[in-house]
Every structure is written in structure tokens, then in C-alpha cells.
């Protein structure tokens, strides 16, 4: 069984240290192959917040891939937002804003959907759509094919429609047709799993969007606790098998507890 840990929206600067420590203990327990961080790493893109995030990510002691969220671009420092929007991000977390990870069993392709010209909305360019689709077509048949970005492509709640990724109408069918299995996102602090369809609609190939809540921040949404997702993948048999586990932080137990397990179909 291969495990992939998805964390999102930790918003360093508003993190709860008790939850941070519990998340690190969960990773030690589950031993995921890779940790994927789908944006909003900081609250206000300040240098000390990125440094705190860097220290946190190093403690996983395993590969970590991250992409920026809209909070990872300066909001009030307008010169930095216009001239060097990812300066603090790159200083602490590295130059690559769209990292990849590949093994015999996994392919993870990520993209930066933030835009300094937008306040909070995300956008995918035609060039990004083409690049990701091309990379997915190169995947091996037994790989779990994951795309990670910050902004959602489907809304469960009507109030979240305004948060959906600009360009999703072209991107999602193209990626599903190219072999996408799972599209990871964050941004709205609401965890859910919904199907995605290719150019043939519901009669054709299907993928899944897996949204994550806030991993460690006080900025929880409604009654949804801090949570993370764990993708469990098995390709040892005739069919590829995958399930998504949602782990919620329970204060009374001072730990993350598995709350839901959702099997997903892989075409």
C-alpha cells in the first residue's frame, strides 16, 4: 500500500502548535511516501511565516512538494506583490513553483494557479493546460496520476462558485482525457470528493477532485475541524485501487483520527 499525505492551507502565522505536533505524529505513524502541500502555506506571505513553514516541512523527513496559494503572495506590500511576488516563498521553500514527483507507482504534476494581478482568484493558462496534459499522457499504466493546485474546480456549496479556478472548463476535460486520476486542491477549507469528467461527459472517462480542509490553522470553516487527506493506493493486483481517507483533529484526544474512508474508481 502506497500512501500520499495531502495537507493544505496551514496558514502559518495562524497555526496551532498543538495541531502541528499532532500532524507530524500522524505522518510518523502512517509513513507516507510523499507529502503534498496544496497552497496557502502562510497567512500574509511574510518572511518569518515562510521560515516557520520551512522548519515544519523539514520535520516530515520525507519528500515534500508544495505550490503557492493566494495568501503566499504579499497583500499589503504592493511593491513586493508587483515586482517580486514569490520572493519570500522562494527564499524559504525553493525556486520551483510547479514541482513534480515520479516513481514507478506515482506521478505528481503540480501547477501554480495564483496570479499577483488577482486578489484571491486562481487561473490556469492555456500553456499550463497543455503542459499538464502532455505530462499526464507520458504516465505509466500502473502509476497513480495526481495533479495538485491550490484553487478548486468544482463547488459543493453555492457560495464557493466564485472561488472556482478560471480556465477550469478547458483544463479539467483535457486532463481527464489525458489520464488524470486525482486533482488535489484547497483554498476554501472545505474537504470533499467529487467526480470530474472528460470531453465525453459522464459516459466517458472519469477522474476525481479531492479538496482538503485547513490542516493546522485556526481559520476552520464552520464545524469542520482541522483535517488532512491520505490517499491509499494499491496497484499490485489486476486493477488499480485507491481510497481517500480524511483524518480530523480531535482536541479531546490530541490527535488526528480517521473520520471517513472513500473508495474512488480508477479508469
From TrEMBL:
Residues 2-190 form the Calcineurin-like phosphoesterase domain. It comes from the Bacteria. Keywords: Hydrolase, Iron, Metal-binding. GO terms for molecular function: hydrolase activity; metal ion binding. It holds the Pfam family Metallophos. InterPro entries: Calcineurin-like_PHP (IPR004843), CNP_phosphodiesterase-III (IPR050884), Metallo-depent_PP-like (IPR029052). Gene3D superfamilies: 3.60.21.10. Belongs to the cyclic nucleotide phosphodiesterase class-III family. PANTHER family: CYCLIC NUCLEOTIDE PHOSPHODIESTERASE CBUA0032-RELATED, PHOSPHOHYDROLASE. This is 3',5'-cyclic AMP phosphodiesterase CpdA. It comes from Halopseudomonas xinjiangensis.
